[in-house]
Amino acid sequence: MDGYKNLQKWTSIRTANIVSLHTVFTIKAFGDQSIMFVYDFHPAAETLMQRHFMQGFYNKKRQQQNPINEPLIWTYIVQLTAALRALHSKDLAYRQMYPTNILISGKSRLRLNYPAISDILSGNAEDVLRCQQEDLIHLGRVILGLCVNSSQPFQGDQQIIAQCMDMVRKNYSVDLFNLITYLLQPLQKRRTVDALMPMIGARFYTQLDSAYLWGDMIEGELEKEVENGRLFRLMCKLGSVNERPHIAGSVSNHDQSWAESGDRFLIRMFRAYLFRQVQDGQSWLELSHIVAALNKLDVGSEEKVMLQSQDEQNVILVTYKDLKKALSKCFNDLYLQNAKDQRGHNML
Known about the structure:
Blueprint: H1 7-12, E1 21-27, E2 34-39, E3 46-47, H2 48-52, H3 55-58, H4 70-88, E4 102-105, E5 109-112, H5 117-121, H6 128-148, H7 158-171, H8 174-183, H9 197-200, H10 203-242, H11 252-256, H12 262-275, E6 277-279, E7 282-284, H13 287-299, E8 304-308, E9 315-319, H14 320-347
Antiparallel strand pairs: 1-2, 3-4, 4-5, 6-7, 8-9
């Protein structure tokens, strides 16, 4: 089909507001010659139609939604126009700008869904410029529907559109009214996405600032997870050394005394320091103490810590750096012993 000539263009598009297409292939698994489109998956997403126009379908008791506030509409406009700009700059057209094809993730994150399907399945070389102009008209209808909180403008009835435009003139800013008017011009008048920028104006910087703040927040949460993973890895090492099980057989004596001497006994005393603190004769538990001690152990701090055995017969003053060396040695010995045992088992 002629639509396949644009497949490479579609698969090369990686932009924030379009669901990424990875590949297209034919398959006979369904009893016919089907075409499979492989896209990114965005869990928990819903369509623009579901979010703003079909609440009563999912919840009969829910009251009619209030009109959408203008800042949210501008948030949608910036994202949708950015997506169309990315497509039109590659001589492509979306061809299906309808609320049922626009995904929303979270509060206001938009993505154009099912890109390339109409193009590839059309079977003929349509006028791309005309399709791009239709994209803008359908975008205007979507924005108009959001303004009046109704799906009626999507049908293209000019009388209904005129009534809705009158509501927009009375309830929203001049910039928003002018933007919708520009988008809904007849096909004969050439329009471009770039021409919308003066109407969006400084609101673009508001969206850019929000995106940066969101990125900073996500990066901060990611840093926390990195810290959690680092401490989890350290806890795995401590657990492997301290909780080595007793193994029956020729090495039983070795396993029985595993944590009773040398560096291994030091690590066992450190476990008691972490989890078995006593204050004024009472058991004392504080998560910050555990996290702080693990962080010092992980970096090998020169700070000294006093360790005491459970029977209170042994007390030692040692640095976290020495503890880190002892833990690394014990874990490496355990790892090598396990690898040796596995080789012996495989030989048998």
